[in-house]
Amino acid sequence: MFRDRPRLKYHCVEVIAGQNACDAARSLQHLRVLSAGAPLLPLKTCDHPATCKCVYRHFDDRRHGPRREYEHATKVLPHKGAERRMGHGRRETDDY
């Protein structure tokens, strides 16, 4: 069923603690982990693994919220003063 979908580089999961979840599962809530490094469910330290209702929530990316470029309230405006850079490059191949 999922074999046709391309594998995403930063695909991640978040543990969703089920009803009567153990403390270990609750401590992992709201923590996104790359799929390859995600712990197997039920967790090794689960208090009741036979009746565990914890599941994964899948995400295409680990990031939460907006990207950094959108966090800035103002954009940097180009410099309007005179160009003061006089020198050329330092490499031998740079034209003088």
Q: What key phrases describe this protein's structure?
A:
96 residues; 14% strand; 3-stranded antiparallel beta sheet; elongated; single chain
Structure, explained:
The structure is a single chain. The protein has one helix and three strands, in the order E-H-E-E. It has 96 residues and is mainly beta. It has a domain at 12-64. It has a three-stranded antiparallel beta sheet with strand order 2-1-3, with no helix packed on it. The N and C termini lie far apart (62 Å).
Shape verdict: elongated
The rounded distance between the terminal residues' Cα atoms is 62 Å
Q: Assign the structural class, choosing from mainly alpha, mainly beta, alpha/beta, alpha+beta, or little secondary structure.
A: mainly beta
Please tally the helical runs, counting DSSP H or I stretches of 4 or more residues.
1
Largest sheet: 3 strands, antiparallel
